[in-house]
Amino acid sequence: MKKMILTMMLTCLMAKGAEAQIGPYDTYMRMPTTDLYDMGMMNAYARVLAEAAARRQEIYDRYSNMAVEAYKNRQWNSVIYYVNMALETKYYSGQLYYIRGYAYEQNGNLRAAKKDYKKGKKYGSIEAARALEALKAKSKRR
Predict the structure, then answer these.
(1) Considering the domain boundaries, does residue 5 fall inside one?
(2) Which residues contact 135 (CB under 8 A, 6 or more apart)?
(3) What's the number of CA atoms in the CB half-sphere (13 Å) around residue 88?
(4) By residue range, what is the domain housing residue 26?
(5) What's the pLDDT score for residue 27?
(6) DSSP string, 61-72
(7) Range 95-128 burial, b when 16+ CB lie within 10 A, else e
(8) What pLDDT, on the 0 to 100 scale, is given for residue 4?
(9) Other residues' Cβ atoms within 10 Å of the Cβ of residue 20
(10) 8-24: per-residue pLDDT in tens?
(11) Residue 57 is assigned to a structural domain of this protein
């Protein structure tokens, strides 16, 4: 038992750092465990978090703009792809859910359209709420 405790203590003392990935699009970053409470390291970590958030926002903006362009051009499969990529950044928009739901509806996938319209309504899209009601009325008529 003493040998196991001694081995664990030595292992902990020898560990000089840990690797972490902040976001899905970020590279791994090595953080020294001995300097976790150093103000310089904490500031560096905060700066890395801010940069990662800015990159995610940039990716979100790029893909959401591409989704809107595809929507205007009536390219429904492209709309679905670009909205999926935009939503992977963990920024959510009722408008994006609405246009993806509309694309699903145009492709004949009414179940997915209804699901997206509900999410769009949850995130404040008036268009999604109207489309959801229209889809429900359409389903009742069938």
Answers:
(1) no
(2) 105, 110, 113, 114, 117
(3) 13
(4) 16-141
(5) 56
(6) HHHHHHHHHHHH
(7) bbbbbbbbbbbeeebeebbbbbbebbbeeebebb
(8) 59
(9) 12
(10) 555 555 555 555 555 55
(11) yes
User: Which residues touch 103 (CB under 8 Å, ≥6 apart)?
Assistant: 71, 76, 77, 79, 80, 83
Residues in the chain: 142
pLDDT in tens, 43-97: 777 888 889 889 999 999 999 999 999 999 999 999 999 999 999 998 889 999 9
Tell me, yes or no, whether 8 lies in a domain.
Answer: no
Residue 126 has pLDDT above 90, yes or no: yes
Asked if residue 11 belongs to a domain, the reply is no
Distance CA 108, CA 110 (A): 6
Query: Number of helices (H) and strands (E), helices first, in the chain?
Result: 6, 2
For residue 50, give the amino acid letter: A
Reported as a pLDDT band with limits 50, 70 and 90, residue 106 is very high
Is pTM beyond 0.85? Reply is: no
CATH of the domain at 74: 1.25.40.10
Question: Domain count of the chain?
Answer: 1
Residue from 139, 140, 97 nearest 121 by CA: 97
